[in-house]
What we know:
Strand content of chain B: under 5%
Shape of chain B: globular
Largest interface: A-B, 36 and 30 residues
Shape of chain A: globular
Strand order of the largest sheet of chain A: 6-7-8-3-9-10
Distance between the termini of chain B: 30 Å
Strand order of the largest sheet of chain B: 1-4
Oligomer: heterodimer
Amino acid sequence: MTVDESNVILKMTGITKRFPGTLALDKVQLTCERGKVHVLLGENGAGKSTLMKIISGEYQRDEGTVWFNGREVNFTNVRQAMAAGISMIHQELSLLPERTIAQNIYLGHEPEKEGFKGIVDQKKMVTDSKALMDSLGLDMDPQTSVKKLSIAQQQMVEVVKALSQEVRLVIMDEPTSSLTSREINKLFEIVERLKQNGTAIIYISHRMDEIKRIGDSITVMRDGQYIDTVSAAEADLDTLITMMVGRKIQKMYERNYREPGKVIFETDNLCGLRFRDVNIKVREGEIVSLSGLIGAGRTEFAKAVFGIDPIDAGCFKLYGRQINRIDPTNAIKYSMCLLPEDRKKEGLVLQTPIKENLTAACLKKTFKMGILRNKPENEIGEKYVRELRVATPNADKIVGELSGGNQQKVVIGKWLETGCKFLIFDEPTRGIDVGAKCEIYILLDSLVHQGYGILLITSELNEVIGISDRVYVMKDGEITGELTRDELSQDRIMRYAVGEGEVV
Amino acid sequence: MVEKSINKNVPEILCSINRFINKVNIPGIAIGDALLIVFFSIMSDRFLSSYNLLSILRNSCTLMIAAVGLTWVILMSQNNVSVGAVVSMAAVMVPILNNKGLPMGIVLVMPMLMGLLVGFINGFLIAKMKFDYWVVTFGTMSLMTGLALVVANGETISTTSKFLNFIGNGKFAGIYIIIWLTAILVSIMLLIQRKTKFGYNIYSIGGSENVAAISGINVVDTRIKVHMISGLLAAIAGMATACMNVAGSPTVGNDYSFNAMAAVVLGGTAFAGGKGGIIGTVFGTLMLRILASGLSMMDIDSTWQKAIIGLVIVTLIVADVLNDQRKAVKGSRRIYRDVI
């Protein structure tokens, strides 16, 4: 791709960022021009957000150079980046619900009364925000408090907030994920206007139609690395998807497939917070994956099924029992359990020994008369340490001292001990090393052979393809596709996940 | 639209009162105060007199000053339990320094510096060094409670000073000087809260520290300043008690931390931060004092009074939390419908 050097506003080269244990960015480059929309594309965890946070001053780079507006810069905090004219529209809303629209728009840079430093000019703030919103075609009273707005309206306030000071570069991180089509059109009008004024825009999105509509150039990232930059007009979907997923399937694990048994879990038009009309089933002896991009509504679905979040409509069947309302206590009684996304916060008591964690979910069953005794506790501890091959000398070791993979095994053991047969795993292999992942996969395989049914939520495509019997793909809260084992490929899943499934 | 249709049927005076209430954001607790006054006036014929109402106001002053200082700390979703200890320390410092024959300027400035210093230590350890605010303020609480007892030798120290006596017990235009002083202090704080960037930043930090930080607000700086102001106002409250008694007791502030917290929370400032403010605290303090005065006039035993006041506090807070939860549930429903 050719770049007009005189028009370049941002140039990043060789950007490297390390977090403890991982290399988040590896010599990434990015060049943005004035008046152009530069799309950043990549799978979950490709490093897009990290790169953006480096531009906006939230993170500091470890290596590399950043040129902005003709000089080398090194922003150490958000204020400096803002002063230079960089503003970011965050994916998760960064508004204060208790404050008014005007107060949120000018958050941190309220206009001051002339001659009085530090005194906020409230009148000016209100009229300015009104004028700003009018110019962007938004009809809202700046003195309404933000909590009264809908999510879509809040997202638009977020846009106004980003444009409320002089901007040279706007970063939009999936700005349309909670907008309705009417508002999306409005947002694109705003983007057009910004382009005409010579503002550069970095646009992160997975929606191909949007990218085609407003993008000028596209940079693809994968696993913290820069892959390529192409012109949006020339790029076609196939090449982009190939660049995003790469060709990197390795066989890390061997599944022994078996014929699944009867249906144990089946949803009937289940609706809840951020998902709707979900119809899926899981059979005995089957690993079913729920795939999709982060924010597609998968975790919310799992939480609703387990009774943490409410179910709004529809119902599901579990071992033949029809369920409309559920809470976690009953879920366990009905033989279902959820292995949470964040094992350290929601799955384990880190500072207690392994054996205590293992019995934590079924104290009543293990200990008669409600009195804790050492013998059953030790027996259970030893049993799972042996069976799940937890790398520890004994079951008395403190869980927090184990590695991530072994911690995850303890969580699994804890739920197996409850006797539940339908297991929902939410990102079971996040943040654990390859060897341990492999062992978890072997464990899952052996579980389905014992007649367990597993619903697996994972963001790693490799994992989905490697161990699933069947895959449902979710996008924006809806199931967009179902793939059997023979049909599985990274391309197909990605197509359903970004909403181009019909093209296959 | 709604307001206009009301206008036709309601006398103009009520409308203007309504507009005024909306404009100055008087919280619901003010209505509670008014109801309590009515209730006690019916229950006791001694309650409703200008003398008694004035003395309720006067008794509210020291707590109000300390509670107003605490409001901002709670508003940014932290807490400060060292308020009472600073009150005690300031209260004994005034007579001790005065008895040493130091000039009045020094007698008045030293306790304030002490308050600022304690506040700075709190703020620095909490905001800069990232210690837990409970641990830090418990620490300074113990420290100052102990020091106050040490410097006062465990006794109430009296002094003689026409000036201090005048500040504490004198009147101007028929109203106690101390009430005027409190009114001025509260007004200044209110202006800062409503009109300055600093005030805005307190709300932003309380609403979400992360949002404040990514919006370019200097969170550490603001937090330290707020703790210093809390310390300063606690010290001023202690000095005020010393003036009113023309003596200082090292245990005078013992109840202040809890009572100030109660006043703040009654006034609608949530422990979660980000909403509420000083006006609410003013009415919250008044409610505590109205209750105390009214219950005494109904000849209710002072031990029972504490229990009843506690019950009122818990009831109001539970009602507030339930109300908020109901709103939150409604809100999430609405948001959900909107997205899908």
